[in-house]
Amino acid sequence: MSIHFYEPRQGHGLPHDPFNAIVGPRPIGWISSLSASGVRNLAPYSFFNAFNYVPPIVGFASIGAKDTLRNVQETGEFVWNLATRSLAEAMNASCAAVGPEVDEFTLAGLTPTPSRLVAAPRVAESPVAFECKVTQIIQLQQASGETVPTWLVLGEVVGVHIAASSLKDGIYDTATAGHILRAGGPADYFSVGPEQLFQMRRPR
Prior knowledge:
This protein is mainly β. 14% of the residues lie in helices and 37% in strands.
């Protein structure tokens, strides 16, 4: 097997950085937040995942001190909204590089709807939303100890909204919910559907 090896600090030597493509496809962290002054914000993050089960904890990484990071630092709250195939274009519109005074809900043609336990609104059109309270904000660092301008935001999920249509016999049906995932190419995404579903039981 021929192997392409590289040290990231010296460059990958390829037309496009393969790191994101290898660690993927990844869930999209479509995060809604509210500034201390009450301005709504909505932005997708390509580094997002779940990190604990009980209590449920999710996290996203902000590469650079963006509006979402400042909002969660100020308020200690955010909402994760599920990005689906039918919402892909709106999700993409919400990542426009605009000033902190711009409401991305309006920009993307989406409906903000109140959450129950946090002040930040959720996306009414999204079939799933997690209301979150910030537990930790950690600035990442290199192996040398030098900090990098990326912050990992972790939040405990304190409220969950699920559209009834996404529940089949009381079980969340990932295969038909329409999840989309971020891939590694400059404009690449994947969708999840029933054709990707297979089952394996854990060994006893």
